[in-house]
Amino acid sequence: MKRRPISPLPSPLRNPLSVPPVLAGVRWTSALLLAALGAGTVRTARRLRDVPVLSAAPRADAGVPRAAGWRLLTAGGVEPDAATFLAACAHADREGLRVLDLLPGDLPTERVLGLLRLVDPAGYRQDRLGEGRGAGFAVLVAEEVLARAGVDPAGPDATPAELMAVTRRVKEYAADATGLAIAPGLSCGPPAGRGGPARAAELRAQGLPPGALAAAQLAGLALLAGVAVRQGRWGAAAAGLYWIQPYLALGRPGAPLRPGDLARATAARPVRSLGAALRTAAATPRTPRTGAAPRGSARTEAVRTEAVQAYRADLAAGTDRFLEPRRPDCPWCGSRRLSVRVRVPDLLQGKPGRFTLEDCGACGHVFQNPRLSPEGLEFYYRDFYDGRGGEGAATVFGRLGAAYRGRAEMLRPHTDPVSWLDVGTGHGHFCNAARAVWPDTRFDGLDMGDGVREAERRGWVETGYQGQFPEFAVKLAGQYEVVSMYHYLEHTRDPLAELDTAAAVLAPGGYLTIELPDPESRMARLLGPAWLPWFQPQHQHLIPAPNLREALADRGFTVLAEEHGPAHQGNDFFGAVALTATRLAPDPDRPWAPPAGPARRALTAAVRLASLPCFAAAAVLDALRTAAAHRTDGGNAYRILARKDPR
Question: pLDDT tens digits for 8-30?
């Protein structure tokens, strides 16, 4: 019997994993770029529509009136008319604003795009921790805000960078009362050059790193050029969308903000972007951290010389005095079963010294041994949270809004707090953010540094106490319903004494909430010395959760809740890259080290450039790690909420 031949199966059944014909020609890099550019275009257009527009106001007969309590600060060449000033004052009063940045109707294209990348107008005012952003041409500020912020009004020749710095500062003193508005009748004035130094200064004034941004922009342009050449019509479409993006986002007919250079900026966008990135990269080493004056100015050099001399005197006296004698037993349980957990140099700032963390074999407590002396604490903390490192620290703390809200909301099922003392408050970032969760709570702060006074001036805390917490045990006894210690105990010399003080300061039935790095985290073993929460030489004690629970019980507390996953800080891999890069190429301008020559500066620049893709990969890994931590309730930190038992 003759068999009938079997017909071949259709292609999809022969290979279930084969790519459908309609997708066979897709170049995925180009497709992803198209998606990202398309989403960015839509986002920019939406954000532009969300910026309010000043309404018309009657003109005054002569001059610009000075409305009571308001100052309009402008950049050189910007001349607002009376109608614009009155309309801005009326808008601010109506909306309850204390700071209002005005966007001129002819704001140049790239300035509009840059501003709308940084600011979502729909949520700008509600973001209490968001940094102040503006166009840099005109800003209306309440005089009382200027006075609290200690800002001298900019002169008639102020640069956009100087006004951007003013907007960024006064936003801190009007955390939920700062806004943006388009002023159709306001002009940017005569076109001014925006060369590399000016652009770098503007980026620094907004707290952004010009060198890294220039490198990222150059890398993006190179990627677009590569896909345009190698990936056919898909690559050409991606490059083309980038080219015409300004017109698609800003070219809406009848829009109150329509840049006069929109056509030119769109036509020449690739060339302009390349030139701007190259000029910024070349100018970055010549601009200071503040963006206010070029390197070599009298003020900048005087400050640096003073710092160099102070550090030179400290180091001439030797570094042995910065460490106390090594102790043979555990400060938590007294056991002598100690072993070295990790030895590291100062990876945070690159100051001289080497530090040891030891692990107690009996209770698991990890502590710095030998620990820093009071002189050592002053030396290694200097220029980290204030001084030359203050701006960077404030930027980091300002981006922890989600963590702050999680900490504040942990109290929701248990109490509606009336009074709250945040110990180790720094500049009061947590208290500022927590007001959005507990608007009727009185927040006070305590810290060793001057930042607590600044927090008081900003209105982020009602009262700021400066000093060591145990010093206030009697003065503040029984006054607070809630005491918080967020990433504070690990910095202290005697955490058990700090817990005793918290018990004294709380009223009976009050709540103590604590957040700490978790030395039992798996990432501590995986990353070794590069695990960021070791944070040497600042962290002196890393306390396992069981130890803290036991210490709280001994002091009359009942633990109500414990969180691990929600307390996780997504910085394990990013921090490891940052610490490694700092170890390989420390800041060449640090005043505690000899002056860096051209070779050292070139090495630093090369390491920073090479680390950019590592940072990108680390950010992805941290996102995955954070998702896993939330699912498994196991992260690199933990929170505990405990109630002081009524007596």
Answer: 444 444 444 444 443 445 588 89
